[in-house]
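subagent[fold] <- orchestrator: predict structure for attached chain, return tokens only, no commentary.
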Amino acid sequence: MKRALVTGGSGALGSAICRRLAADGCHVYVHANSNLQHAEKLSSEIIAIGGSAQAIAFDVTDHAQTIAGIQNLLMDGPIQIIVNNAGIHEDAVMAGMRADQWSRVIAVSLNGFFNVTQPLLLPMIGTRWGRIINVSSVAGLVGNRGQTNYAAAKAGLHGATKSLALELASRGITVNAIAPGIIASTMSDAAFTKKLIDQLVPMKRAGTPEEVADLAGYLTSELAGYISGQIISINGAMI
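subagent[fold] -> orchestrator:
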């Protein structure tokens, strides 16, 4: 059984990815930071329907804390699937953005990617098989007003994705990024009216977390062994 770590696994998108990977036969570590209870609830639901899951918690922006959490996981063997899904919004126009708003968003999306992924690489390389997915955003491709920090963090993930893919290509490990557009969730429902979605999205609807999870499931499967270094959009033809 392959072991998968999904950071930010207690959120709407992370939960869908966790469910999909568990359905595909993985043992899933459902990561949370402050929402450990949500991660534990999701793990229990996965187990109740015959899957394998475990809730874990650490702050991906804290290098020492993340290393400690990763070392605990590695005691049971290598992690072969990583989904770097943790991310936050601290929206503000650049002229009015505080330094802490910039730093926090960069720290979660970009520093968190490094803190989680780097210590897992050598054990993964030893198995000669692995799948790494970085969850980005359409904002990282085209930008967005009020999200200079978020767009910068996600665009940084794109460069990291392509570089790491080159480093790991000969080891049987793929590295890709998924860049969702407007995906239905409590947060997006509050930000995007139906009228606005109709204006922005040619398909005239928001995507679902399950649609993103299905893409993640494919990219982590044996079928996707020759796909690496790609930024794959899922946005209803927005771009």
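orchestrator: received. Logging for downstream: The longest strand covers residues 173-180. Strands lie at 3-6, 27-32, 52-57, 81-84, 130-135, 173-180, 231-234.
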